[in-house]
Every structure is written in C-alpha cells, then in structure tokens.
Amino acid sequence: MTLAQRLRAPGWYRVAVAMPLAVAFALGLDVLIRSLQHQHPVIDGKAVTTISLITVPLAFIVAIGCFDYWFRWASGAPTIPEDHSGHGARTWRDYFRVNTDHKVIGIQYIVTTFFFFIVGGVMAMLMRAELASPGMQFITPNTFNGLFSVHASLMIFLFIIPVFAGIANYVIPLMIGAPDMAFPRLNALSYWLLPTAGIMMMASFLAPGGSFATGWTSYAPLSDVQPLGQTFFNVAIQLAGASSIATALNFLVTIITMRAPGMTFWRMPLLVWANFTTSLLVVIATPFIAGSQFFVLFDRTLGTHFFDPSRGGNVLMYQHVFWFYSHPAVYIMMLPGFGIMSEVISTHARKPIFGYRMMAFSLVAIVVLGFTVWAHHMFVSGMFPWLRVPMMLTTMLIAVPTGIKIFSWLATLWRGVIHLRTPLLFALGFITMFTLGGISGIMLAVIPFDIHVSDTYFVVAHIHYVLFGGSVFTIFAGIYHWFPKMTGRMYDETLGRIHFWLSFVFFNLTFGPMHLVGIDGMPRRVADYAHQYATLNAIISISAFIFGLSFLVFLYNIVASWRHGPAAEANPWRSHTLEWQVSSPPPIFNFDNVPTVVGGPYEFGVPGAVHGVFKEQEPVAAGSTAVAGVAPE
Q: How far is CA 224 from the centre of its chain?
C-alpha cells in the first residue's frame, strides 16, 4: 500500500495527519475571529486551546474511521457492501482499529478502562504518600487538589462506568442469543470516544496553571474561575457522556429487539435486566451532567453568567442539575455489578436465584427511586430547609430494593453446593463491603449526622466502600468469571485467591479507619492535617500501598494466563446461560444456529432443566436437536 493510500484509508496514518490539521484549524479560526472583530491578531493561547479541545477529538474519531460509512451514505456515494473485514480479531492489531465485533469492542473497553484505573491508582498512591504524616512532604497543595480531582474523575467516568459497559458488550449479545449489538458502528464509535476523554483529563496537568482542581463534582462558581485545566474537564465529560449515551441506546435496542426466540423478559438472565435498567438511567440522567458542564463552559469561554452570583447567576442550581445526574450515576455504577453478582453466585453455588422476579422488580424500583434522592448531597448547601426531610426519607426508602438483593443473594447461597473459586470469593467480599457501605449511607441520610460529617473523611470512606468494595469487587468477580469465555484460557486459581485476600484485608485497613478520623472531624480534600490524626493516617497510607500492590497480582495473573494459561472448556463452570453453550472464545458471529430459549437461566438442580435449544443445521432425524443448559450437579 502506497503512502497516499495509507493516508486515505481509515487508521493511524490518517490520525497523524488529521490531528495537527485540527490544531491548525483552531489557530486559523482564532485569528479570523479576531480580525473580523478588528482586534490585534495576536494568538490567544487560551482560545486556541479551548477550540483545539473540540476539534482534535473530532479529528481523531473521524480519521480513525468511525464515520467513514456514514459519510459515504450521507453524501449519496455508493456504500461499500459489508464484507465483515472490520469485524472480529484475527491478530492483536485488530484491537487497535475500528472494529464492529461486540466481543472485540468489549475487550477494547476493558483493557482501556483498566489503563485509566492504573493511572488513577498511581495518583491515589501519591496522595497517600503525601498524607502519610502531617506537614507538606513533596507536592504543593494545588498539585494535591489536581491529583484527587483527576483521580476521582478517571475512576468514575473512565473506569467504573465504562468497564461495566465493556463486560456487558462482550456478554449481553451472547446471553440473549444475538449475533451482535443492534448498531455495531455506533458501538465502535462509543468506544473510541472514551480514550479521547481520558487522555484529555490526564493532559489537563500540562495546561497553564495546572490541572482542574475542583474535584469530580466541579462545583460552580469555583469552576468558573479556575485556570485553563478546568476546561479540559468540561469537554472531556461531554465525550465520556456521549459515549455512555450511545452505548446505553445500543443496549436498549439490542435487548428489546434482538432476543432469541422464546427469550421473554422473564427468561432473561439478571445481568441483562441489570444492564437494561442501567441503560434507562444513563439515557435519562446523563444529559443533565452534560448540561451542567456546558453551562460552566459557556461561563468560562462565552461570557455568560449562569453561575455568577454577582450577575444574577444561581450557584445552587448547578448543584441541583449536577446531582440530579450524579446520584442516579451511583446506581449506574452499581446495577451492572448487581447483575454480575447474580450470575456468579447462582453459578458457583449451584442454586437458582432466590426470588428472581423480585430481583428484577427491585432493579426497576432503584431506577425510579434513584431520581428522588439527589438533594441529600445538599443538606449543607443552603437549599430550602423543607426539602431536607423528604430527601432523607426517600434516601432511606431506596435501601429497601437494595436490601432485597442482599437477602436474595444470601438465600441463594444458603445450603447451596458452594464452589469457593475466585469469582465467588469476590462476590462474598462484595456483599460484606457493600452492606457496610450501605449502612454508612443510611447514616448519611440522617440530616444531623450528615451535617456533622459533611466534607470529612467519613464521606471518603463511605464512597469507597460503595464504589470500590462494591462496584470494583463485582468487576473483579466478573473478569474472573468470564475470563475463560473471553480468552479461551483458565486463570491461575491460586493467584486469584491471593489477589482476593490481599485486596479484602488491606481495603478494610485502608478505608475502615477513615470512618474514625472523619467522625473526629478530619476534613477531606486537604493536603495537610492536624497531628492528632497522624497515627491512623500512617496506618491508612501503609495499608493503601499494600492494597495498591495487590493489583499487580491480578495484572500478572491475567496477562500470563491469557498468554500461557491452560485451555478452557466451553463451559468450565457448568453454567446454564447461553454464552457458556458455545466455544471459548465464541465464534465470530456467536452462534452457528440461532438458539431457542425454552426455560429459565438458573434452574440448577432441577431434573431435565433446559435453558436453550440449538437446532442442528442438518438433523440426522426429524426433530433432532442439540440441548444447552443441562449440566450434571
């Protein structure tokens, strides 16, 4: 292929040309606007950077090839017949280009999000090193502010939310008997938006004045007057949000329209239910955080005054709009994990899910109630006092459907045939930690207690018990559970157990003491603290370093097993759901024959139970079938 052909074809050669052109376009636009306004045509670095934050990501996703098919169609040119050359992975290079295979996209999501997880974890280690003893050690307070802001933003927007989308991307079409997602090209676009958002957040450290330093909440009016690094956050959130919405719409259409024959909603695995309800939350709620960041961006760049109180702006409105997304976002970060727990616990305890329909109804209840609790984050913000009590009550009420799930999982485990493998260990760890995080959440719903511990390390402990002890433990459980299906290899069980016990013990030693220092009044988001907290902070920091190092065990296990692990059977866990009834890894379009679903997905121990039936292409005798979902107990 000649250089000219390479530059015309979608891919990294075209990216190398397109991105400098995007910066040049930003420079030219700035000069043109200044000339039209009869201003001195001196380049404004802030304006050029702001324009580049929009043009460069667009140039990247266009050059990499996300829009090629649509551009041809929109221009009226003959569209290229689908030859599936961009579908599936034949070499490692196929993971570095636009691919329409949901399984490839799922792995792209997982690997990319774990990269941002590692970056965010390194930032956490730097913070704990600074906090190991009182006084300033080796970073400035402003750098510390940037570290916790970028750390939280990467962990929430670039790891927890999209890694669940990656696992679901791989598993959901297989679970419902579909050959792919409903919109494969949109699926590819939603992935490629993600690394651009993450790189933009990390690049904010290079901006004049440093990175954004307003926390992941980016409260106005402080965010209105921050240095240029804040704009990196405002634009990156739009890219990450667009990725989430595109993915959620894809899941909704796929689940509603592409289920295999016989798969009614009441025969769907609970992971499918969880991603269906999560997608509803994403589609409804994400535009609100996009709106809040657009308003801040307009205040910063166009001279509007949405949140400038001196010009009639409403500062409190920012928090209402932001939290109307961000509390449902907590459930966006938990509901997929609930689905993973149901799959792992049922399979490794060899028992049907206790109260399957109530579990599904509780997912829907969380979606509805999730939009009624946002203002409990604002008890000390100066909102209307009469709104506090209703928000306290709804916050307590939403614990009911969550409690249904905890009791259902425990009932499923009761008298089950327990196979205590690594996925189930992380599931049990999740139940323990998430329950503790839920209890502290109920405490924070009580107005006087919330006022007492607001902006202290008690809140830091709570959110980590919910989002790390909760969500991240379910992510590890899901990775270990579906690792054989994704790679065709078995992981090392001993290393998996070491990873779990190091994580479980040192997670609790890291975040458990934060409850104590928080109740005693140690403020969060501050680089220094009083000497009375020195001992507990030293314990927290040492535990945090060991906890961080435990991830290296997971990383080594996954990489080594992926390359050299023993070959996996098609169904090593003897599970009943459809994804385990095909080879590991699955065929390029998932199924040689479309399955017909004839029963529930969790009927372990039921004699003759069948979930799906695969009709053979050329049956030897009339009515000959291949049966999936029957496993000896």
A: 27
Reported confidence tier of residue 626, pLDDT bands at 50, 70, 90: very low
Check pLDDT > 70 for residue 438: yes
Burial label, 123 (beta-carbon count in 10 A; 0-12, 13-18, 19+): buried
What digits encode the pLDDT tens for the residues 366-421? 999 999 999 899 999 888 888 899 999 999 999 999 999 999 999 999 988 999 99
- Do 510 and 104 form a contact (C-beta atoms < 8 A)? no
- Written as six digits, the tokens of 258 are 């592409």
Specify whether the CB–CB gap between 246 and 189 falls below 8 A.
Answer: yes
The dihedral through the CA atoms of 284, 287, 292, 293 has a sign that is: positive
Domains assigned to the chain? 3-75 (no CATH), 99-113+142-330 (1.20.210.10), 334-500 (1.20.210.10), 570-633 (no CATH)
Q: What is the pLDDT of residue 608?
A: 80
Percentage of the chain lying above the pLDDT 90 cut? 77
SS3 625: strand
546-600: pLDDT as tens digits = 999 999 999 999 999 999 999 999 999 999 999 999 999 999 888 888 899 988 9
Residue 331 to residue 23: CA distance in whole angstroms? 38
333 touches 247 (CB < 8 A): no
- How many CB atoms are closer than 10 A to CB 74? 9
> What is the distance between the terminal CA atoms of the chain, rounded to a whole angstrom?
56
**Residue 444 · residue 450 · CB < 8 Å:** yes
139, two tokens: 């970073």
Give the separation between CA 398 and CA 334, rounded to whole angstroms.
13
At position 338, the amino acid (one-letter code) is F
Which residues on neighbouring strands pair with residue 613, listed in sequence order? 596, 627
pLDDT in tens, 15-33: 999 999 999 999 998 888 8
Return the SS3 of 339: helix
- What is the arrangement of strands in the sheet containing 625-628, beginning at the earlier edge strand? 595-597, 612-615, 625-628
Task: Retrieve residue 439's tokens.
Answer: 């209890």
One-letter amino acid identity for 445? A
